[in-house]
Amino acid sequence: MPRHGQERVAARPLKIVHVGDFFFSLKKNAPSQFSVGGKLSHGLIRNGHHVIDVSYRDIARAGGWFGSRKLGRRYLWRALKAFLALSAPDLLLLGHGYMIPPAVIAEIRRQQPGMLIVQWNIDALFVPDNARDFAARHQVVDASFISTAGSVVRECVGEEGRVYFLPNPVDASIERGRAFANQFLKADLFYSCGNPARERLICGQSWEMNRFCQMLEGTLPPTMRYAYAGVRGQPYVNGPFYAALLEQSAMGLNISRRADYYLYSSDRLAQMIGNGQLVVMERQTGYDRLFSDQEMGFFNTLEELSEMLRFFHHHPKARQAVARAGWQRYHQLFNERAVANYLIGQTLGTLLEDEHRWRHIAAI
Questions:
Q1: If you average pLDDT over residues 162-191, what whole number do you get?
Q2: Is 97 left (phi over 0), alpha (psi -120 to 50) or beta?
Q3: What sequence ranges are listed for the domain Spore protein YkvP/CgeB glycosyl transferase-like (predicted)?
Q4: d(CA 226, CA 114)
């Protein structure tokens, strides 16, 4: 927002080529309707920019033998370079983009000297391959955005270059549920896990997630109902089936592989709170610096987690109030237009001091 007595002059809209994953993939059986890349493109377009989405994996599959993404890498590189030469964008935005190596990015920079290049990434930096790839691309782009904050990011990429925290965006046209509006829903607790055998560090202890969920159930009232995806014998789901679980669950358990990377969370955080669930997560994540105990459920110990879930199960109106407040604040801070505005403002260096105040808490 402008300072008092100061009028902002609208900047010229940008032409942006956004390379990433969006709401359609040739490989997947169901649309990735919660795609971060799609939300960012929505936000950029709604802010007035001309955005051209380039689904890099699908281009590689289309150009590779037998539909092989790996065999289509060189085809992708040629196609992208040719398109950039023809379209002359102001900004090349790379979402993940692991198939586009630093050498190709450097070549694109030489061919398009007036174009800015930015990468964004929501993968965890505690996974060595992710950290290595993100750091390598950081050396050849103008700015990097990552869904982790704190000193660990600088340790990963080095002291040179501009790197910023990227919140997981929410989009009201995508996260359409309002679980807080209902006192009684089909499920009390939602949890989704792509690989339950991969252990997660929870309150300082490693857990296989089938075992963790079984343990947690044993501490909760027998009247609790669970909406699981990928754990406890339930299939992993996506598309409308996944959306239904989000919309019809009162509370959501947000557990990533570890909680000690400042502000890191999988993008399920936005999906759960965006659909009106009361999100429950470890205090160690640092999200208690952005949200209060009246907006999210934070715990330090497993006993505290169990006690909290029992309380909100028996007091649905209290759960509704906290979930509604969290939903409102998350949509206010991290909606797709706000995150897109922040990304462009940080890239161009045009943000005012009082814009996106949370960024000072998340400074890298």
A1: 97
A2: left
A3: 225-342
A4: 53
Backbone angles phi, psi at 164, to 5 degrees: -135, 155
Please write the tens of the pLDDT for every residue from 182-200. 999 999 999 999 899 999 9
The encoded tokens of residue 276 equal 């009106």
Task: Report which residue type is found at 205.
Answer: Q
Query: How does DSSP classify residue 31?
Result: -
What mean pLDDT do residues 65-76 have? Answer: 86
Question: Minimal CA–CA distance to 255: which of 240, 268, 242, 236?
Answer: 268
H-only helix segments in the chain: 36-46, 56-63, 73-87, 102-111, 128-138, 151-157, 209-218, 239-247, 268-274, 302-314, 316-334, 336-348, 358-361
Classify residue 19 as left (phi > 0), alpha (psi -120 to 50) or beta: beta
Q: Return d(Cα 34, Cα 25) in angstroms, integer.
A: 13
Instruction: Characterize the bridge pairing of strands 249-253 and 278-282.
Output: parallel
d(CA 120, CA 105): 14
Give the total residue count for the chain: 364
